[in-house]
Amino acid sequence: MPETYTYSYLAASALIKTGPGVLHSVVLTGGSDAATLILGDEIATGGDAIVGLAAAAGVTASAVLDVAFGVGLYATITGTAPKITVSYR
């Protein structure tokens, strides 16, 4: 049976999942200015970073990771109206 993933759509910093899991992929599109995204193995800011992405206004950056996390998955986002999709299980 194929792996299934949950998707979260974000526009602001947020806790995505508590507890262990696997970060499959992330897509970041800059809004009206440049945007940055840091996904961390944490339940609030300040933990261990898993990946960081940056995108200019209207530009998309993406990554497929398949990386395990243990504490949780938290997104720290900067920029004006960015669009983010995170898939995980």
What best-fitting shape do the alpha-carbon axes yield?
Answer: globular
CATH topology, which one?
Answer: Jelly Rolls
Low-confidence stretches: none
Span of the ends, CA to CA: 15 Å
Q: Could you estimate the helical fraction of the residues in percent? A: under 10%
How many strand units? Answer: 8
> What is the CA-atom radius of gyration, in angstroms?
12 Å
What summary fits the major beta sheet?
Answer: 4 strands, antiparallel
Structural class: mainly beta
Main sheet: strand order: 1-8-3-6
Number of helices: 0
Percentage of β-strand residues: over 45%
CATH class: Mainly Beta
Whole-number average pLDDT?
A: 95
**SSE run:** EEEEEEEE
Question: What CATH architecture label applies?
Answer: Sandwich
Describe it:
The protein has 89 residues and is an all-beta fold. The protein has a single domain, classed as Jelly Rolls (Sandwich). It has no helices and 8 strands. The protein has strands spanning 6-10, 14-18, 21-29, 35-41, 48-55, 60-69, 72-78, 83-88. A hairpin with a 6-residue loop joins strand 4 and strand 5 (48-55). The radius of gyration is 12 Å and the shape is globular. The two termini are 15 Å apart.
What's the short version?
This protein has 89 residues and is mainly β.
List descriptors.
89 residues; mainly beta; Jelly Rolls; four-stranded antiparallel beta sheet; 64% strand
How are the elements arranged and paired?
Elements: E1 6-10, E2 14-18, E3 21-29, E4 35-41, E5 48-55, E6 60-69, E7 72-78, E8 83-88
Antiparallel strand pairs: 1-8, 2-7, 3-6, 3-8, 4-5, 4-7
